[in-house]
Amino acid sequence: GAGVSQSPSNKVTEKGKDVELRCDPISGHTALYWYRQSLGQGLEFLIYFQGNSAPDKSGLPSDRFSAERTGGSVSTLTIQRTQQEDSAVYLCASSLRQGVAFFGQGTRLTVV
Amino acid sequence: DAKTTQPNSMESNEEEPVHLPCNHSTISGTDYIHWYRQLPSQGPEYVIHGLTSNVNNRMASLAIAEDRKSSTLILHRATLRDAAVYYCILRDVNFGNEKLTFGTGTRLTIIP
Question: Which of A50, B13, B49, B62 has the fewest CB neighbours in a 10 Å radius?
Fold first, then answer.
């Protein structure tokens, strides 16, 4: 596709369940970012991938959060044992290194 | 990380020019100034960026102070579709600011 694609667009899960959020970046983009945005709040950085370098995980809020990027393309953000405070919109972006970042439409996660 | 300061909110009349300020007094010589905006219920989108000289594109203009400690995003003729949160961000051209850190931004309201 032409843009960054995220799936699912909406996810409702029960507290304590694990969830996986997917991001398909723009083809050829070496950098990939994950952010989350709680209702009415700003964007909180979670993790950054750049090529084959070790990812910058400094924004992950707890060890329940993890992300991987396979083959330098698709990325999956996994949240284990979800809590209600994990409810937010999770945004993915991709770019060429230090280039303009293009964002997906996000996945709205609701933990009930 | 170099920080930016923006007003929390601004209002402007439709079809009038809008000047959105950003202070970045600790900017380094290798920091580019980027602007993104986030329309309601959407992911952020790139608006414009520059280093030292003023920049123009189809969306906006960027005026950069001579000492680079401040900049202004100019929307020449605001429309209702320009109502969004506008973020001013610094990106180190030497890869020192990989995270693309978003502040709280300026919420722009357009009055019909």
Answer: B13
Quick: pLDDT tens for A28-81: 998 999 999 998 888 999 999 988 888 989 999 999 999 999 887 999 999 999
Instruction: Give the per-residue SS3 of B14-49.
Output: CCCCEEEEEECCCCCCCEEEEEEEECCCCCCEEEEE
CA B12 to chain centroid: 16
User: Do A42 and B36 lie within an 8 Å CB cutoff?
Assistant: no
Q: What share of chain B is helix, strand, coil (3-state, %, to 5)?
A: 5, 45, 50
Count how many residues are written for chain B: 112
- Contact across the interface for A35 and B46, Cβ inside 8 Å: no
Gap between the Cα atoms of B9 and B21, Å rounded: 11
For residue B85, give the amino acid letter. V
Nearest to A21 by CA among B85, A32, B84, A30: A32
Contacts of A30 (CB under 8 A, 6+ apart): A50, A51, A72, A95, A96, A97
Of A42, A50, A59, the CB nearest to B104: A42
